[in-house]
Structure to design on (1736 residues):
C-alpha cells in the first residue's frame, strides 16, 4: 500500500439519500437495467494518462500537481502502477486504458523503450491477477515525443513511419498479453500544421498502410479484440485527418477497411468538430462502426479540448440512448478520457472526479433505458416515416426514376402538405425521464 | 433595354493604373496565364438568386432593395430576365447559374410551376443566342417552400420525395436545354433540426436513391455535364448531411457513386465546417472529385453564411493554386454565390460587387500561376517526402508488416531526428508572389 | 373565443406523476420556494413576437406557419390580440412582452403607426381588466423596417434618429399606459456591417443621447419602471455595440448612466458573446445592474441565435442561482424570447413549448433555492477567500503599495503554496440538488 | 559571438526585386512614410519569450527545439541573452520585450529570483550600450508558476497577491532601469476556471487595487512610461477578466483609472473575443486608450491562441490604418508576440519568421498611409454622416428630448429613405491601395 490515498475509503453504493461524498448515489454495479447489470452496461474505464501522468500543465503554465511518482526511471513507474491499481480498487473500476508512454519511462533507444514496456506489462499482469480491473484498451503514444512532431504513420520521414509501426506492435503485444478488449489509434499528429508543406495524397496512403498493418497483425495474432480509431478534428494539429465519424468512415471505405475498424467517440472531439455527441454516436450506429466512447466533456466556451469529467445528466442520457439503440457495448465501454482541473491538487479531487462522473453516467443510463423501454420516442419517430412503408412508396424508393416520378406527380397532382416535426413535444418527453 | 442599369457602362479592362471604378484593373479576359486565356481559367458565373431574387432581408429585417421586378407573375419574371442579361452583358460574364425558383413564379400546382419554368427557359434560350453568357449550372430550389421544411429527398413524407424528384427532373431538363455545363445539388434541408425525430439510416438511403436517379437520368439523356454536390455543414438545418468534402466523399463511396459525382466547394461553407477553403479544395483534388467553386467568403466573425464577394487576394490565390494543381476547371468554374450587403441599395453596388470580385480573382489567379510556374513551393514539398522514394522505403509502404518493421527498427537502431517543417519560410515564399 | 386553441385545455399543475402533456408537472404557481410563491419568483412572460408574429421563416425559407391572423390591417391585429390573450389564459401566464410592430400594422406614416399602436393598446388595456396577465415590458422594434437598416439611434441619418426617438416615445407611452414593469432597448442594428463606413465615436455619442432621452422621459413621466438594455454581440449586425454585460456597463459608466439603466440578459446572447449565461448573470449581479432575463437557449452547434425554449434543468438551475443570489427579481422576470421551431406547425406545439419551458424553469428554481438554502456552496466559496478577512490582509488591500509589500515578501520570505480549487467536488455538489 | 546564428548575415533592405531570403524587400527603416521614418512608425519589438524561452511544446507534446541555452542556472541565462542580442542585431530590431521569467532563472525564494533578475538587467543594460535595440516594454510572468494557478492579483490567497505585487515591483524597476517605454500587464490567470468557486466582486476589487498600486508606483518613481493592459478573453483561464477592449475600458472607468492606463492589443486575442483586430484598434482609438500592439495572428480555424507571425498584408494594412488614424504610436510599438511553429526547428526559421513579418508590416503600413493620405475613404465616411452637421440636427443631438422630437416627426412627416452603405465600393477602394 502506498500512502497516496491513505485516508480515502473504497467507494460503495449508498443510494440517492446518502450525503457521503465518498459514495455512489446512483451507480450501483449490480442493479439490473434492461435486464443487464449496470456495470456490464457501462463498462467504466479509468484513463491512466490523465489520472497518473498528467502533471497539471497547460499552455501557459507548468506542473501544479505534486505526486511522489513524478520523475524518471522504472522505480517511479512502479510506484505509479501501485497507486493506479489502488485507485482502481477504491473505485471498483472494471477497466483501465493506457498508452505506452503513460506507464513506462522512455528509453534511450527503441529497444530500451520496448523492454521498459514489457517489464511494466508484467507488473500489470501480476496485479490484474488479484484485481477485478481489466484492460479496456491499449494504445501507443505517437504524439508527445519530438520525433512525431510531423506525424507518425503520415510522417514525411519513412524512419518515423517505421518507428511508429514498431511502437504500435509493442503496444498491440501489450494489449493482447493483458487480454485487452480493444486497441485504439488516435491520430493527434496525423494531420498538418500548414497545407503548404503537405501532400494529402501521400499521407492518406501512408495512414491507410499503417492501419492495414494493424488489422493484419490482429488477424495474424488470432486476437479477437476490436481496432478503434478515435476521431478528432484538430488539436494538437491545425487539421487532423480523422476529423469526425463521417470522415473516418469515408477513409475506411476508401481503403476497404470499413468492416475491420470501428470508432471510439469522445464527446469533446464531437464538439470541436461542430457536432453534438449524440450525433456522432447515432451516425456511427447507423454506419455500423460504433465501438466505444470517451465520456468526457468539453467546456462549450473553450475552443480547445478540455477533457473534463461529464457533469450533465441530460447530455449523458442522450449519449447512452444512442449506445443502447445500437445494441449496447460489445467490446467497447465508457472510458473517462478526463482529467481533473489543474487547480484540483488533492488526491480526493482525483477520486471524486471519477465518483461524480460514474454517478452522472449511471443516472444517464437509467434515464436512457427508461426512455427506450417506454418506447414513446421510438414510436413517434417511426410514425413520422410511416408512409414510406406503403407499397407504392417502398416501390418508388426501390425502383423509381425521375421521369416516371414526375409523371406521377403531374398525374396525381401531388402537392404535399407539411406536418409538424413536434420538436418541443419530444424534448418535453425526453425531460420526463430525467 | 430596361432603365435599371441605364447610367452604367460596360466594364472593360483598363489596367492597374486606372482610377475608374467601372473598369477592370486586373481581370483581362484575353490575357494568357500559363498559356490559357484568363477568361477560360476563371470561368466566372453570376448567381441569379443573390443578384436578382434576394430582396435584402435578414433574420431580423425585411426587404431593403427596391427593384422594379420584385413581385409575382410572369411579367415580373420576364423583366428580371431582361435586367439579368443586361448585367451579364455589362460584366462580360461568361456564365450564370440559377435555381428554378429564382427565375420563374411558383405555380399553384407542380404542373404550373413546370410550365412557368419552361417558358422562362425559352426566353433564356433566345437571349443566349445573342449573348456571350452561357450556363455554368442549373439547380433546383428544394429549400425555400414550406413543403421542403423537413427535407426534399430525405423527407419523412414520400410525397415530398416525389415532388422533389419531379422538380429535379424539370431543372435538369432546363439545364440540358440551355447547354449547362453542370448540374448542382445543395442539400440545405437534407439534414435535421433535431435528432429526436430523425432516422439517419432511412434518410441516407433516401438521399442516395435521389442522387442515383439524378445520375441515371443524366446518362439516359446522354448529357455529358457534371453532377455536383455542394457541401455545407449547417444553416438552414442544424446539421446537414453534406457536411464537408470528406463527408460527401464517404457518402459517395458508401453508395458507389464516387465516379459519377463531384463537388462544388464554397469558401463560406468550408469555413463553417471548420476548414480553410484551400483545405477543402486540396482534399477534393486529392480524392479526384473537385468540380467547381463558389468563390464567396464568410465573415470570420460571423457564425453563419454571409455570402460576401471575395476581397482577399491572398486567400483567393491559395484557392486557385489548388485548382491549378488539380489541372484547372474542366466543366466547372468560378461562381459568385455572393450577395451585396443589404445596405448596398444601388444598382452600382451590384455591378461593383462583381467587378471588385473579378479583379480579386484575377490577381489571385495570376499569383497562383506564378507560384506554380516558378515551382519553388512544389520543389520544397517534394523534397520533404523525398526519402519515401528510396527503394527500401517504397517497399516498406508496399509490403511492410508490423513485425518485420519492428525487427528492422531494433536491428538498425532507427532513431529518427526531426527536420524543420519550414512553415514561415514557405509563407514568406507565398507572399513573394503577391 | 377564437377557434385557434379550441381543443386545448387550460394548463394546471398536476405534479410530477402526471402523464398529461397538457399539465404542469413542476410549475406550481402557489408553491412556496424560499418563502415566496413560485409564480412571484419566476414572473414568466410570453413574448408576443415569437408566439404570434413569427411566421416560421429562416434565411433560406419563408413562412411555414398557417395562422388565421397573418396579414395586413387592424382586423388581423385584433384577431392576433384575441388569440394572444387566449394563450395567456391557457398558460396562466403572469406577464407578456411586446414590440410595437408585433401588435399593430405598420402605417404609411409615423402618425398612422402611432394611431394603430394606440388603438391596440386600448384593446390590450381592456383585455387586461379581465386577465391576470400583466405587462413585463414593452419595447420598440427599431430593426425590421428598412429605414433602420443602418441603425436607429446610431444611424448616420439624423432623420432616422428622430424617427426612432419618436417611436420610442410611443412605445414608452404604451408601456406606461399598460402599467408595464420595465422598458427594454435591444440594439440589433446599433452596430455596423463594416468598419469602413462607420464612425465609432459619433455613433456612441448618438446612442448615449438616445438612452439619456429615454431616462429623462421616464423621470419626466414619473414612471417607476426600469430601463433595460439587452446585450447581444452580433446578429443581425456583424458587430453590435451592446456586445455583452461588461460592454454595456462600460458604456453606461462612460456616459454616467450606470445608476439609471440595468440589463436584460438572454442565454443565447451570452453564448454568442463567448460567455456562459451564469457568467453574464453573475457579472451583472456583481455590478448591480441585473434587471431581467430572456430564458431561451441557443443551440451550442449553431453560430447564430436560435431562440429555443430552455430544456436543460442543470443550466437553468445555475441561472436562477445567480438571480436568487442577487436577491431575486424586483421589476424583472423570466421572459421566453423563444420561438417554436419552424417545423412545429400545430397550435399544440406553441402551447407545449411554453409548458415544457415553464416546468424546466420551475425545476431549476427549486434546485437553485435548495442549493442556496443549504449553503454548502456559498460556505465553500467564502472559505476559499477567508484569509482576506485577516486584518493584515484587509489592510494590504486597503492601503498597501508595491514597495512596502515587496519589503514584507522579502522580510517574511512569503512563498505561497497553492490550494485545491475543488472544482469537481463542487460540481458533484451542484448535481446533488438536481 | 555565439555559434547559434553563425551562418546568418545581418538583414538589410534590398528592395522588392530581391530574391534573397535573408533580406528585407519592403521594410526600409529609413524610408519616409507620411513624413516619418518607417522604423519610427513601426517600432518593431522582438518578444524574448517566444524567441528564446519557448521550447516547442504544445498541449500534446514536449520540447522540439534544441537550443544550447535551454536549462537551469545563470550561465544558461547569460548565453540566452547573448543569442538574443545577436538576433536583435541581425534583425536591426529597434526594440525588444520581456517577462522576468524569460530572462532569469526562477530562484528558490523571492529574494533569489529578484537578485537573478537584477543581475540579468545589468547584463542587458551593458549590452544596450552598444546595441541600437531598446526596451519597448517589460512585464511580469504571473501565470507560469504553480503559485499563480488561481490568479495573481485576483488570487483567493492574499499571500499570492503580495508575491505578485512584489514581483511587479521588481519588473517595473527593471523596466525603468532599462528605459523601457511601457509596462504591460497581461492577466492570463486573472479570471476563473469555474464560477462555482469564484467571487467576482472581490476579485475585481483586488485587480483594481493591484492596478492602482502599479499606477501609484509609476508616479512615485517619476517614470513617464505608459501602463498597458493586454486584453484576452480566455486561455489559459476559461474566462479572463480583461476580456476585450470594451471590457477593460469599463473596468478602468469603474475604478477611475481610464486616464492612467492604455491597452496593448493583440490580433489573436481580438479574434478569440469575437472581434476583428481593426475593431479593437478602432474602439481603443475612439476611447483614447490605444497604446501598443501585438502584431501576431491567430489561425482562423483554431479555437486557441496560435501566436503566429502575421502574413496577410490586407489585414495588417487595416490595423495600421487605425493606428495612423489614432495619430500613430507614441510610447507604443509593434511587438511580435509570435512564435515560430514547433516544427520550425532551425535558427533560420527564427530569423525568417521575423523578416517575413517585418516585410508584411511594412507593406501594410505603406498601403495604410497611402489610403489615409489619399483621403477617399475618410471623405466617404464623413459624407455619410454629413447631415449631422446641419444646425437643426446638431441641436437635436445636443438638446433634444423624446417629446419634442416626436412632435417634429409628426409635424414634418419625417419618413426617412435609406441610402446605400456602399460596402463593396469601399472594399474595392481599400484593395486598390494594396
Ligand atoms: Co479529448
Ligand atoms: Co479521447
Ligand atoms: Co453560402
Ligand atoms: Co454556394
Ligand atoms: Co435571441
Ligand atoms: Co432576447
Ligand atoms: Co496571444
Ligand atoms: Co500578446
Amino acid at each position: 500500500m502506498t500512502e497516496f490515498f491513505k485516508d480515502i475509503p473504497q467507494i460503495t453504493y449508498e443510494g440517492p439519500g446518502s450525503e457521503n461524498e465518498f459514495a455512489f448515489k446512483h451507480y450501483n454495479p449490480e442493479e439490473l437495467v434492461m435486464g443487464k447489470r449496470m456495470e456490464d452496461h457501462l463498462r467504466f474505464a479509468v484513463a491512466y494518462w490523465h489520472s497518473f501522468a498528467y502533471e497539471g500543465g497547460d499552455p501557459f503554465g507548468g506542473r501544479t500537481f505534486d505526486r511522489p511518482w513524478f520523475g524518471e526511471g522504472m522505480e517511479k513507474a512502479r510506484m505509479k502502477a501501485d497507486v493506479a491499481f489502488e485507485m482502481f480498487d477504491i473505485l471498483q473500476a472494471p477497466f483501465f486504458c493506457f498508452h505506452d508512454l503513460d506507464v513506462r519511462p522512455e528509453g534511450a533507444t527503441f529497444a530500451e523503450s520496448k523492454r521498459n514496456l514489457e517489464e511494466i506489462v508484467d507488473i500489470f499482469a501480476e496485479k490484474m491477477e488479484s484485481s477485478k480491473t481489466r484492460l479496456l484498451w491499449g494504445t501507443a503514444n505517437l504524439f508527445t515525443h519530438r520525433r512525431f512532431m510531423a506525424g507518425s504513420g503520415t510522417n514525411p520521414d519513412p524512419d518515423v513511419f517505421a518507428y511508429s509501426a514498431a511502437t504500435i506492435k509493442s503496444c498491440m503485444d501489450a494489449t493482447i498479453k493483458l487480454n485487452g478488449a480493444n486497441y485504439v489509434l488516435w491520430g493527434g499528429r496525423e494531420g498538418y500544421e500548414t497545407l503548404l508543406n503537405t501532400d494529402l495524397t501521400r499521407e492518406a496512403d501512408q495512414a491507410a498502410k499503417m492501419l492495414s498493418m494493424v488489422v493484419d497483425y490482429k488477424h495474424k495474432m488470432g486476437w479477437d479484440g476490436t481496432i478503434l480509431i478515435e476521431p478528432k478534428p484538430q488539436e494538437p494539429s491545425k487539421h487532423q485527418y480523422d476529423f469526425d465519424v463521417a470522415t473516418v468512415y469515408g477513409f475506411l471505405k476508401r481503403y476497404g477497411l470499413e468492416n475491420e475498424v470501428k470508432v471510439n467517440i469522445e464527446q469533446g472531439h464531437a464538439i470541436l468538430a461542430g457536432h453534438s455527441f449524440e450525433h456522432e454516436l447515432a451516425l456511427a450506429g447507423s454506419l455500423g462502426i460504433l465501438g466505444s466512447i470517451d465520456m468526457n466533456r468539453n467546456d462549450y466556451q473553450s475552443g480547445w479540448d478540455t477533457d473534463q469529467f461529464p457533469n450533465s445528466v441530460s447530455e449523458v442520457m442522450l449519449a447512452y440512448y444512442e449506445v443502447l439503440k445500437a445494441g449496447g457495448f460489445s467490446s467497447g465501454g465508457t472510458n473517462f478520457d478526463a482529467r481533473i482541473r489543474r487547480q484540483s491538487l488533492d488526491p480526493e479531487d482525483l477520486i471524486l472526479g471519477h465518483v461524480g462522473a460514474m454517478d452522472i453516467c449511471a443516472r444517464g443510463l437509467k434515464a436512457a433505458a427508461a426512455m427506450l423501454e417506454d418506447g414513446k420516442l421510438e414510436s413517434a419517430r417511426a410514425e413520422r416515416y410511416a408512409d414510406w412503408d406503403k407499397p407504392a412508396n417502398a416501390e418508388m424508393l426501390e425502383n423509381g426514376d425521375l421521369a416516371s416520378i414526375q409523371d406521377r406527380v403531374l398525374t396525381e397532382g401531388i402537392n404535399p402538405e407539411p406536418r409538424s416535426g413536434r420538436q418541443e413535444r419530444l424534448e418535453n418527453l425526453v425531460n420526463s425521464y430525467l
Notes: Residues D 266, 268-269, 305, 307, 337 surround cobalt (II) ion (ligand 7) (CB under 6 Å). Chain D touches chain A through 34 residues (CB under 8 Å). DSSP finds 16 helices and 14 strands in chain D. The radius of gyration of chain D is 24 Å.
